[in-house]
TrEMBL record:
<dbReference type="Pfam" id="PF07949">
    <property type="entry name" value="YbbR"/>
</dbReference>
<protein>
    <recommendedName>
        <fullName>YbbR domain-containing protein</fullName>
    </recommendedName>
</protein>
<feature type="transmembrane region" description="Helical">
    <location>
        <begin position="12"/>
        <end position="30"/>
    </location>
</feature>
<keyword id="KW-0472">Membrane</keyword>
<keyword id="KW-0812">Transmembrane</keyword>
<dbReference type="InterPro" id="IPR012505">
    <property type="entry name" value="YbbR"/>
</dbReference>
<dbReference type="InterPro" id="IPR053154">
    <property type="entry name" value="c-di-AMP_regulator"/>
</dbReference>
<keyword id="KW-1133">Transmembrane helix</keyword>
Length: 423
């Protein structure tokens, strides 16, 4: 029996070996037809490592043209390659390997199926642009936006911190002129603190893109406190009595009322802002006139003006039957009298606006060319932008108020040379 088995195994050995080889080759053909080798291109985002190498040298980098990806070819069986995605690969650029200060070799490695795939040997690079780094400290300007609620006024606006340290590309940091932290006060009725992201502006007011900047803090705390407000009338007191022949018509102020701010207890005690009688002495008047006073010093203790621009109040005093108007007097209609020898005087503007009083009919009939004035230059000295009094001789039925003008006084070379020649 044993001999029969041996005979069966050894009979036609060559044919049997040939059949085995043929079967193996057929298996290979079938396998490759069913799961062939394929090559595909993948694109991955590059991760930069050891960026601090540049920072320690006072440099920053920016990826050139914003392209931070690389493409590469991978070869593997179809059953493998169909399972792969870009997340199965790592693309790393080590800043220690920076070449020519412009490119970094990218190392590509497989995270999955590493033993079953082949990555093309072509060297990929990440291209960068180097920039000088700059650090600068800026004072934070705390501001508000929005509409303050009625009956309130912003008292103080502060920031914490008050100084912000900014680090980034030198050209970007150098373009910054101001750092602003703005809190929105719309709908707010009590003191509050808000965390806001600071904004950066150039000298021209253009906003600076902060994406490349590193800040000492990411947000700024802006604290806003409010005070109560109250509208009060401006009252004018007078002293003395009008000379014979004059009858007072009205005394008006512009503005007629102002907004004041302060604690509630202080505001409750204030009913008006009074301009004292020492300002308007009726005994000194010769007719209607207009004057401007600063009411800041007349405010009661504990209150201030909500708007500092309203501190200047214009007082118009009109006599009976008169009205007020303004005329522009040209420089040609202004005469300089008693100019010292060897000096020249010129007006520091092309015209002067003056107050004119009279009946409506008289003012309507008055022509600009008829309004002429003069400056008495006695005792004047050489110098730029000097104040002088522009005076007018009254036209019948019309009063023109004297006003202050600015003049320039220089040495008159022509007169000096003539005097030398005469000698």
């Amino acid at each position: 029996m044993k001999q029969k088995i041996i005979t069966a195994l050894t009979k036609d050995v060559g044919l049997k070996i040939l059949a085995f080889i043929f079967a193996f080759l057929l298996w290979l053909v079938v396998v490759n037809i069913d799961d062939p080798t394929q090559t595909r291109t993948f694109t991955s985002v590059v991760t930069v490592t050891n960026g601090d190498v540049l920072k320690s040298a006072g440099k920053l980098y920016e990826i050139k043209d914003g392209i931070n990806t690389v493409s590469f070819r991978v070869t593997a069986k179809r059953s493998i390659i169909e399972k792969l995605s870009p997340s199965d690969f790592s693309a790393v650029a080590d800043m220690n390997n920076l070449e020519n200060e412009e490119r970094i070799p990218v190392t590509i490695a497989a995270k999955s199926y590493a033993n079953y795939i082949t990555i093309s040997s072509k060297q990929n690079y990440l291209y960068v642009v180097l920039e000088d780094e700059k650090t600068q400290r800026f004072v934070v300007s705390a501001q508000t936006t929005g509409t303050v609620e009625e009956g309130l006024a912003v008292d103080t606006v502060t920031s914490s911190p008050t100084v912000l340290t900014v680090t980034g590309p030198e050209d970007v940091v150098s373009s910054i002129s101001s750092v602003v932290a703005t809190a929105n006060i719309s709908g707010v009725t009590s003191n509050f603190t808000e965390s806001v992201i600071p904004k950066f502006y150039t000298e021209r007011g253009d906003e600076v893109d902060a994406k490349e900047l590193t800040l000492s803090v990411s947000t700024i705390s802006v604290s806003v406190s409010f005070l109560n407000t109250k509208a009060v009338d401006v009252v004018v007191k007078t002293s003395g009595t009008l000379p014979d022949g004059l009858t007072l018509d009205s005394i008006k102020t512009d503005p007629s009322s102002v907004m004041i701010i302060g604690e509630t207890s202080a505001l409750n005690d204030v009913t008006s802002v009074t301009i004292p009688e020492s300002v308007i002495n009726l005994s000194d008047l010769t007719g209607s006139f207009i004057t401007t006073v600063d009411i800041s010093s007349y405010l009661p203790t504990g209150v201030t003006l909500a708007d500092s621009s309203s501190a200047k109040v214009t007082i118009t005093v009109l006599m009976a039957g008169e009205t007020a108007s303004t005329f522009d007097v040209t420089a040609d209609n202004i005469e300089f009298r008693n100019v010292p020898e060897g000096m020249a005087v010129t007006l520091n503007s092309s015209d002067v606006k003056v107050n004119v009083f009279g009946s409506e009919a008289e003012l309507d009939a008055l022509k600009t060319k008829d309004v002429k004035g003069y400056v008495d230059c006695s005792g004047i000295a050489v110098g730029e932008s000097q104040n002088a009094v522009l005076q007018f001789e009254n036209i019948e039925g019309v009063t023109i108020q004297n006003t202050s003008v600015t003049v320039n006084v220089t040495e008159d070379d022509s007169k000096t040379s003539h005097a030398t020649e005469d000698n």
